[in-house]
């Protein structure tokens, strides 16, 4: 992250749910005495319209729209729809449930956690800094108070995301007692992350407060910090783990060895180059759900100069996989991130490969054009390399000192 708003960022709880974009406009009635009606539209992460009889739509209409403040005529907001335990039925303190409950249980009790406002009363807020968009969200709605007797994180049916603003000190700064700034940053981030985990959340979203909205892409001013980063493991202590997972496209496969020869044991992954509309090869990884595909020639949409690695099968890009890796490393075998090195005087054909890649999940909510881009991969490499070289502080701090 580049320095922003004096090193300030919002550490928002990251909920395990379905991301929604909610649009509302007021429609004037024919008679002047009639109050204007409200037209409601809801879209998924991929901007697919959600039908009016869908449970997400019904929940928003019943439990979000009633809390729109009177001065609001139109809005576009974003939030996370999360399954929650119904305390009335269970007799227990309500808590958040896994995303699978939204998919498998049609009668799930749900809560919308709103976190951004993109449009309000005829004015686009896309280019406004995040702290202004968040303030607009908070003035547009008055969600019901959380149930204080059941704890600060007990969900209602609609509320704002839990968040804590933090001003991160620079490496040169120190507290009055002599504590190094980066050490303090680690303690703050870990404390907020632990609070999110205790509230049944996946982790944190760390967002620079002065950044505009950038739809459909990950940036280094909006980072995900999952529970994996909490334990002080030797790998993290040596600054190995990347600060975020990658969304990559499997474009080829390698057959297994020995008893695994009849299935594919590893896959070749690629990031997306939107400028040239090609996929650039990064690294192969294994996947427990091994598949079988007919062999075919190398397709034209793969930008690869590989000589030493030849996949057994190429296939059309159709899925996005979430991948966790230890590091990004320079490699002449791959073409991902190659523009980063070609732009330098000592240009060569080096690209970027993944060290210790690990499959996490299939991203059914994303199409291949929404995968991690070539430029994003190169920027992540630059940030990770500079962080490790500067002070070898644990990568799980996400270099938050430069927010």
What is the secondary structure topology, with strand pairs?
Elements: E1 8-14, E2 18-27, E3 37-43, H1 55-63, E4 74-84, H2 87-90, H3 100-104, E5 109-120, E6 123-124, H4 130-140, E7 158-160, E8 163-167, H5 181-198, E9 203-208, E10 222-226, H6 234-237, E11 246-255, E12 264-273, E13 278-285, E14 302-303, E15 313-314, E16 321-324, E17 327-331, H7 338-342, E18 351-355, E19 358-362, H8 374-391
Parallel strand pairs: 5-7, 13-14
Antiparallel strand pairs: 1-8, 1-9, 2-3, 2-4, 4-5, 5-6, 9-10, 11-12, 11-15, 11-16, 12-13, 16-19, 17-18
What are the main properties of this structure?
disordered N terminus, 30% strand, OB fold (Dihydrolipoamide Acetyltransferase, E2P), seven-stranded mixed beta sheet, D-amino Acid Aminotransferase, Chain A, domain 1, disordered C terminus, globular, 19 strands, alpha+beta, 403 residues
Describe this structure in words.
The chain has 403 residues and is an alpha+beta fold. The chain has 2 domains: 146 residues, DNA ligase/mRNA capping enzyme (D-amino Acid Aminotransferase, Chain A, domain 1); 157 residues, OB fold (Dihydrolipoamide Acetyltransferase, E2P) (Beta Barrel). 18% of the residues lie in helices and 30% in strands. It is built from 8 helices and 19 strands. The strands form 4 sheets. Strands 11, 12, 13, 14, 15, 16 and 19 form a 7-stranded mixed sheet that branches. Strands 2, 3, 4, 5, 6 and 7 form a 6-stranded mixed sheet that branches. Strands 8-1-9-10 form a 4-stranded antiparallel sheet, covered by helices on one side. β5 and β6 form a beta hairpin. The protein is globular, with a radius of gyration of 23 Å. The termini are close together.
